[in-house]
């Protein structure tokens, strides 16, 4: 571990025009030479990183300072990346994130916590009974997902205990894809919705999220308290998310198989704070509704009962469905 490996990007750029007299890897051990991996879990300052076909453990290099490294991050890693027991690589760079899902512990908490990077779909796991569905919580998670630019998918579990009709009526008008599962359910459709994507699974504890993840990924062993292979220190911390690869699904490519995608499982939550989300960012997630706000009075909050809201006018003209407006207003309320 020489300081050569800690050169800044500026140094690397400065050296770029130099004629190479030695093999590139020896000549420039800069970050662009470092291997790129994906952070699959975080445990007490140790990062488990998937590099090509193998996993390795790494710490954050000192020069990253307070830069956060979270599950889903694509990172450049130097040092011993063999993944062999007792080895430790160093994360020297975090690539720019395409998306960040954030959450605050509650609405008064000023500290927003980025929880997952680079996902493209948010799967809200909700039980139809036991525990009963809480639409307030679904709305809040939807708001966070729209704010982060993730496509929502509402996954209703325990369909053996209650029917999904009421929730379907509330969420389909928002354009939210809904999947229903129960023990022994055929997961083909859900697998197709997950294929080729990185999906964050979020839900209240007890909804059956671990059961679902285990059904999708038979070797995931979620909730069994697997011993951490790296530290040997007992079970994975339940405060961190973990990225798990889905098995390939039948597809139409030459090999007849398609990337099954990734599940990023997050610990069960009791609440979903939104202090970081503004009303504007909720509205921005619904371009068709936003277009109808042209006739609103200045500073209109679009809430139920406010005078001269263009959204009410759009419903009156038949240009917007009442169900969709009501669903949208619940989200606006949830975001406040
Ligand atoms: N009837 C019924 N029970 C289910 C179903 N899915 C899960 N359960 C049960 O619900 C309970 C909670 O399931 P888990 O998978 O541990 O729930 P979880 O969402 O992972 O909960 P946390 O670990 O607290 O986050 C268990 O007793 C499961 O057996 C289902 O589809 N139908
Ligand atoms: Zn309005």
From TrEMBL:
<keyword id="KW-0963">Cytoplasm</keyword>
<keyword id="KW-0342">GTP-binding</keyword>
<dbReference type="GO" id="GO:0003924">
    <property type="term" value="F:GTPase activity"/>
</dbReference>
<keyword id="KW-0862">Zinc</keyword>
<dbReference type="GO" id="GO:0005737">
    <property type="term" value="C:cytoplasm"/>
</dbReference>
<feature type="binding site">
    <location>
        <position position="302"/>
    </location>
    <ligand>
        <name>Zn(2+)</name>
    </ligand>
</feature>
<feature type="binding site">
    <location>
        <position position="296"/>
    </location>
    <ligand>
        <name>Zn(2+)</name>
    </ligand>
</feature>
<dbReference type="GO" id="GO:0005525">
    <property type="term" value="F:GTP binding"/>
</dbReference>
<feature type="compositionally biased region" description="Basic and acidic residues">
    <location>
        <begin position="1"/>
        <end position="16"/>
    </location>
</feature>
<feature type="binding site">
    <location>
        <position position="309"/>
    </location>
    <ligand>
        <name>Zn(2+)</name>
    </ligand>
</feature>
<keyword id="KW-0378">Hydrolase</keyword>
<dbReference type="InterPro" id="IPR027417">
    <property type="entry name" value="P-loop_NTPase"/>
</dbReference>
<dbReference type="GO" id="GO:0046872">
    <property type="term" value="F:metal ion binding"/>
</dbReference>
<dbReference type="InterPro" id="IPR004881">
    <property type="entry name" value="Ribosome_biogen_GTPase_RsgA"/>
</dbReference>
<feature type="binding site">
    <location>
        <begin position="203"/>
        <end position="211"/>
    </location>
    <ligand>
        <name>GTP</name>
    </ligand>
</feature>
<dbReference type="GO" id="GO:0019843">
    <property type="term" value="F:rRNA binding"/>
</dbReference>
<feature type="binding site">
    <location>
        <position position="300"/>
    </location>
    <ligand>
        <name>Zn(2+)</name>
    </ligand>
</feature>
<comment type="similarity">
    <text>Belongs to the TRAFAC class YlqF/YawG GTPase family. RsgA subfamily.</text>
</comment>
<keyword id="KW-0547">Nucleotide-binding</keyword>
<dbReference type="Pfam" id="PF03193">
    <property type="entry name" value="RsgA_GTPase"/>
</dbReference>
<keyword id="KW-0699">rRNA-binding</keyword>
<comment type="subunit">
    <text>Monomer. Associates with 30S ribosomal subunit, binds 16S rRNA.</text>
</comment>
<dbReference type="InterPro" id="IPR030378">
    <property type="entry name" value="G_CP_dom"/>
</dbReference>
<feature type="domain" description="CP-type G">
    <location>
        <begin position="108"/>
        <end position="272"/>
    </location>
</feature>
<feature type="region of interest" description="Disordered">
    <location>
        <begin position="1"/>
        <end position="32"/>
    </location>
</feature>
<protein>
    <recommendedName>
        <fullName>Small ribosomal subunit biogenesis GTPase RsgA</fullName>
        <ecNumber>3.6.1.-</ecNumber>
    </recommendedName>
</protein>
<comment type="function">
    <text>One of several proteins that assist in the late maturation steps of the functional core of the 30S ribosomal subunit. Helps release RbfA from mature subunits. May play a role in the assembly of ribosomal proteins into the subunit. Circularly permuted GTPase that catalyzes slow GTP hydrolysis, GTPase activity is stimulated by the 30S ribosomal subunit.</text>
</comment>
<keyword id="KW-0690">Ribosome biogenesis</keyword>
<feature type="binding site">
    <location>
        <begin position="157"/>
        <end position="160"/>
    </location>
    <ligand>
        <name>GTP</name>
    </ligand>
</feature>
<keyword id="KW-0479">Metal-binding</keyword>
<keyword id="KW-0694">RNA-binding</keyword>
<dbReference type="InterPro" id="IPR010914">
    <property type="entry name" value="RsgA_GTPase_dom"/>
</dbReference>
<dbReference type="GO" id="GO:0042274">
    <property type="term" value="P:ribosomal small subunit biogenesis"/>
</dbReference>
<feature type="domain" description="EngC GTPase">
    <location>
        <begin position="117"/>
        <end position="270"/>
    </location>
</feature>
